[in-house]
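#struct-pred

JT: dropping the chains for the assembly here, can someone run the whole complex?
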Amino acid sequence: GAVVSQHPSRVICKSGTSVKIECRSLDFQATTMFWYRQFPKKSLMLMATSNEGSKATYEQGVEKDKFLINHASLTLSTLTVTSAHPEDSSFYICSARDYGHSAGGYNEQFFGPGTRLTVL
Amino acid sequence: GQNIDQPTEMTATEGAIVQINCTYQTSGFNGLFWYQQHAGEAPTFLSYNVLDGLEEKGRFSSFLSRSKGYSYLLLKELQMKDSASYLCAVQDSNYQLIWGAGTKLIIKP
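RK: done, full complex below.
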């Protein structure tokens, strides 16, 4: 199947600093990538949909100025958490759709391994 | 509103069979996914159903009834490594995934 990588896997930062998370599709081109966050024992919460070459679409309640998304190429999307605070500590996961690998047209999402962010 | 319901937690015995149910109410329907997620890891794809009926894939099977807004994931010959959370997700009319909260499956020897 299609492979999605995410970097870093774990980051600890001080409050007020900014953190950039990279999401890459390694063996396919992803016109659409998704950013999720997940709190312990909770489901995935979609933050935004990232489309190559255009502005991301943010879900209601997600601050676009705080969570900056850039999808500069067909294989890379980045999420920058600006001026991070302890409440931003979470598990951030990206995913990508690979229409070329989808059988039957169901367009499954392939997930990156996730980034554990801890803000002190 | 859109809603996906699945049990919070289930316990089963190694070698047994377990069925995890999922009911949904969404604006439109373009398929239902089941994902497996081990603690601290990202979800991995298990199955997809868009038509009514049973899809079998090895030890795992998934069933869908669109008229009832209902699906289940059936796991046979349970192994300890099957201990994980199982996420039900429905693709709505905009092809956006609506996620359930997940079912934590605990396998006991």
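JT: nice. Chain A is about 0% helix and 50% strand. Chain A has a mean pLDDT of 88.
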